[in-house]
Specification:
Helix 2 crosses helix 8 and helix 3 packs across helix 4. The strands form two sheets. The chain has a nine-stranded mixed beta sheet, sandwiched between helices. A two-stranded antiparallel ribbon has the order 5-6. The chain has one domain: Aminopeptidase (3-Layer(aba) Sandwich), CATH 3.40.630. Helix 2 links the parallel strand 3 and strand 4. The protein is built from eight helices and eleven strands. About 4% of the residues have low confidence. It is an alpha/beta fold and 253 residues long. It starts with a helix and ends with a helix. Bound molecules: zinc ion. Zinc ion binds next to loops. The site of zinc ion has 3 residues, from loops.
Amino acid sequence: MTPASRKSAAISRRSLLAAIAAAALPLRAAAVRERVQWCGIPFWRLANGDSRLRLLRIHGDEETARQAVELLLDSVEGEAWIVDSRTRLVEFRGFQIDPNRMFSRAGAERNLWRLNPEAAPGGIAAALDALDSCRDAMLRALMPPPGGLWIAAHNNGPGYSMETEAPISRKIHRPQPDMPRDFFLFTEEKDYQIAEKGPYNAVLQDRPGGEDDGSLSRWCAAAGIRYVNVEAAHGKLDKQLDMIRWLVRSLPL
Ligand SMILES: [Zn+2]
């Protein structure tokens, strides 16, 4: 064997061993798993492969939603952002805030005053200015590329259901009226029309009326961005995972 052929034999043996090692590894959701802060809020970014699917778990106390998102990425390519918190509220500039009320200044202002009634007005104004200056970068990082699918997973308690959303929804699909806490909330009518033929409850809020609450669904509706909330009762992991899988299978990506 010449030195050159010895070298190439060694390389091919090495690449064969690497291929065997890669094949033996189970497909893990956390092919990429890194901690990133946006607006000072800690997120885990999980990525598996390359696709236009983006997942979000924004409320830290919604543990079932976190599990559903992580389990989905075991078998589906996409990127997930998970707020790294055990509580629904997070700290922003020394104040408590609901992270799903940060997406407009008016919604954030109402939420900050409600949760921090003793705050000095100047402190709240400074926090809102800070939020205005970091919000766009956070949205750009979290949202899918153009045309992609954006799914946010939420869990709810007995005080909330699709009937809570019905008055501000333009269309409602109720194939599971006995399970009103499990439902989709769409901002894009084309997506809703697909769900309307499907087995799960769904509402369409492409033009929500009433007060701007600063939620991501309302921001997406106003910006004309495809977005789906997947709501399920706390603890209903199999159902929530089935609902998300159904969306990924049924909607264009
Ligand atoms: Zn939530």
